[in-house]
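Q: I have two molecules that I believe assemble together. Could you output structure tokens for the complex as a whole instead of separate predictions?
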Amino acid sequence: MYQYNNNDQTLIEERVAQFRKQTESFLKGEISDDQFRALRLMNGLYVQTHAPMLRVAGPYGLINSKQFRKLAHIARTYDKSYCHFTTRQNIQFNWPKLEQVPDILEELASVQMHAIQTSGNCLRNTSTDHLAGVCIDEIEDPRPYCEIIRQWTTLHPEFAYLPRKFKIAVSGAKHDRAATQLHDIGLHLIRNDAGEIGFRVLVGGGLGRTPIIGQVIKPFLEKKHLLSYLEAILRIYNLFGRRDNKYKARIKILVKETGMEKFSELVENEWLLIRDNLELDAVRIDAIKAQFAPPAYEADAAQDTSFVQHQLENKAFATWIKYNTADHKTPGYRAAFLSLKAPDSPPGDMTDTQLDAVADLADQYSFGEIRSTHRQNLVFADVKQADLYELWQQLDALKLATPNNGTATDMICCPGLDFCSLANAGTISVAKEINEALDDLDYLHDIGDVKINMSGCMNGCAHQSVGHIGILGVDKKGVEWYQLTLGGSSENEAAIGERLGPSIAKDQVTKAVTTILDVYIKQRLDDESFLDMVKRVGLNPFKEQVYASN
Amino acid sequence: MQVIKDKQIVDDSWSYVADDTELKDGDISVSLARWKKDKQLLLKSNGKIGVRIGPADSVEDIAADLKDIQLVELDFPAFADGRIFSHAWLLRGRYNYQGEIRATGHFMRDQVYYLSRVGVNAFSPEKTEDLPVALSNLNDFSVNYQKSIR
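A: Yes, here they are, computed for all two components at once.
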């Protein structure tokens, strides 16, 4: 994991000092609401329904145990003892006091953390694959490039006042677990015909009101040109992106309105003028790579036999292994998912006690590192197979071992009307109801890979438009209604879900979801996944049942 | 009037002449449209010449004239219009402009550090009382990550 040097540390400390002055100036009335809004957003601070919300950066989802303990401390001291993990691997506190935010940022800086550019119309936190560096389908570890991009984006002087927010995601594996096709820029590490590794660059993807899948703008970009190419795209966007209407200001609209051909020509021309000046030298790349060197794996880890034995003897453990762990590059190790989707807790939330306990477990079992995932869970990336049984027992006691990773109850869910001032409808109570309806684990596992994403408004923070089942809360004359979509995906075969039909009332959502799942169970072919079946049969069979029963 | 120039608060010799006002002696700046229209006349004037550019203007339009221009004013209609930052970068980084680049209009004192990094070397804040704070804001950070103008 990347460790700050003196410059990194100085920079975030100076940022805290700057924000402290800005907050004081605002409280004294020296800067306007509008001005302070822009400044606080670029420090992760929103003003929400009940209180400000502070979004802390989890740089490409990597957090160490010391940082986790700090999050626990902040939750306890400045909030109501919990925090929330987001789809872009960040951490949110829902109840800080405005005047205490500089103190919170100072606390974060003491453990190499910050909230810089986690909001606002600027370059946001870069996200990546939560199995980076350990997954078996990896072409190259994306984390060093994420860190290079993190540094490049942090306080970039030219691109701090963009037309709209700008998100970059990097994937280094064959399977896209970072939703890169739905980002303003998506980067895939790929190997070309000559055997060299570089980036396939996608541009113009995004969710929200107008979900669009990104298109390839550069089929192969040499690594040394990474930053110059990003800069070229950003300069064109900064100069020509629409600023007259915030709903048309994302780069996806510029790409759409300009046309991909013309847009790539603009970028290419800009890039040719700057690329020689901005080359990334191999020494720098290697120095950053060295910070992500594999931990000290035990050579004989695979010789353990207890792992198989425990699975034979304990069905619940075997189920957890099947659903909540993933294969690892190194023999004798697995990556373990900590489910933040326990039936009785809001998706993605953690208490201070859980945070502290997870920090201890990370130290004990996974080299002190924790990762947050796009689907709002956590990962211990490097667990010895001999330790998994013990780890499972301890996670179970913490309610972090629900074996539902990748299943229908592993929902992505935004905070919704309960917390967010933008929301039109509640999400947490609906998620709870769906969770309760799907409490039979055998049934849940029989359904298999079904991704349900639910947002409380069309801003789409929970990526409902790419959920296999998407649920979007809408407001109809002050009443909460829900629009369902089917067939979306954020993975390799990215797709935007199609509307099932008219929106449905709040008390009918759970029934609609279970009806959809029943149609799938009855009509699927042998091993056909939910998504494959939707592709094969279309919406009608689902539509008939959902609306027949209403 | 005072402004910040090259990290000092100094008296200002420039005045902006609006499009509907007659040209006058001394160091004057005009809009890009006026510069295009009255270029020959302006080149004969006894003072120095500046051109004011807004976010929607294209810097490329004055690239060939930069040798005759001693000041480029980058005018913020609203602080959030970030095109100005790229205009400054282009003036220095692409067209190698060596004259004064000045931020005017509705920018925030909290933006001067970024502006200075993309090549702006003079600042005329809306409120004169902001000058000392803006001057100190130029030193908000002692380190940075990216290559820009400075």
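A: One point stands out. The interface with chain B takes residues 7, 10-11, 14-15, 18, 22, 31, 35, 38-39, 121, 151-152, 154-163, 227, 235, 238-239, 243, 273-274, 277-278 of chain A (CB under 8 Å).
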